[in-house]
Amino acid sequence: MGQEAAFSRALEEICSLARRQGNRIAKQQITEQFDMAQIAMGEKHLSMVYEYLASKHIGVGESREALEELSEEEADYLEDYLQSLEGFGETSEGEIEAVILSAMAQDPDAKRRMIALFLPRVAEIAKLYAGQGVFLEDLIGEGNLALTMAVEMLDCAENVMQAEGTVASMIMEAMETYIQENAQEKNTGRKLAGKANAVLDRAKEMAEALGRKVTVRELADETGMTMGQILEAVRITANSIEFLDTKETV
């Protein structure tokens, strides 16, 4: 594994550990993760890591209140959602253990009961990911789906603690994956919009120089783009390129 890949992996482990600790991580834990990855980190590099963690709403050496990251709409949704679940997670520790053990033995009723018991926990985990560019409601939805899948995989767990860890890990991984995919989708959208705007600008320049609309073929010859790429740019801008004649494409 290269240094860059090892660094990325260590940073992922640090973020995951912080989430499990309520969006908090100690400086020593950070250096330990990099040490295990055999990456030497100076103070300058560590400062950059601290800044990155802060952007992810993770406190270094201190806790960060997840509720502070919620919008008013999300806070209202969370309150209503948790109220709708009142009574779902109210049970004794002994009953929870019994339900999990039965779910591990693939008992269908126990699986359904375990899902109901863990729904409030999903919401609590979702709060840890507040402020990451996605709606809390979507995070809870992803977490609930992961919970449903997790209870079907508990037959491999050796004990109750491991089973609970499996469920929590799958819920967190689902939320993290959703956040990453959402960020990638936004980045792709920005790139496409940038390309479409570049087409718009060049079409305008050519139209003003020629005194008429520019054909798709002319713009393709000028920019080096294919006619298909130009038409896709037109689609992205909702056909708002007024300086381009899209009728003659062959």
Walk me through this protein's architecture.
By secondary structure, this protein is mainly alpha-helical. The chain folds into 3 domains: 3-60; 66-184, Rna Polymerase Sigma Factor, Chain: A; 186-245, Arc Repressor Mutant, subunit A (Orthogonal Bundle), CATH 1.10.10. The chain has 10 helices and 4 strands; from the N terminus they run H-E-H-H-E-H-H-H-H-H-E-H-H-E. Helix 1 packs antiparallel against helix 2 (27-36) and helix 5 crosses helix 6.
User: What is the second-level CATH architecture of the largest domain?
Assistant: Orthogonal Bundle
Termini separation comes to: 49 Å
Main β-sheet description: 2 strands, parallel
The CATH superfamily of the largest domain is RNA polymerase sigma factor, region 2, helix turn helix motif
Question: At the third CATH level, what is the topology name of the largest domain?
Answer: Rna Polymerase Sigma Factor, Chain: A
Q: What is the averaged pLDDT score? A: 80
Classified by CATH, the class of the largest domain is Mainly Alpha
H/E element sequence = HEHHEHHHHHEHHE
**CA gyration radius, whole angstroms:** 25 Å
The fraction of residues in strands falls at under 5%
Low-confidence stretches: none
Quick one: how many beta strands? 4
Helix content: 55-70%
Number of helices: 10
Strand line-up of the largest beta sheet: 1-2
Overall morphology: elongated
Number of domains: 3
Category from helices, strands and their pairing: mainly alpha
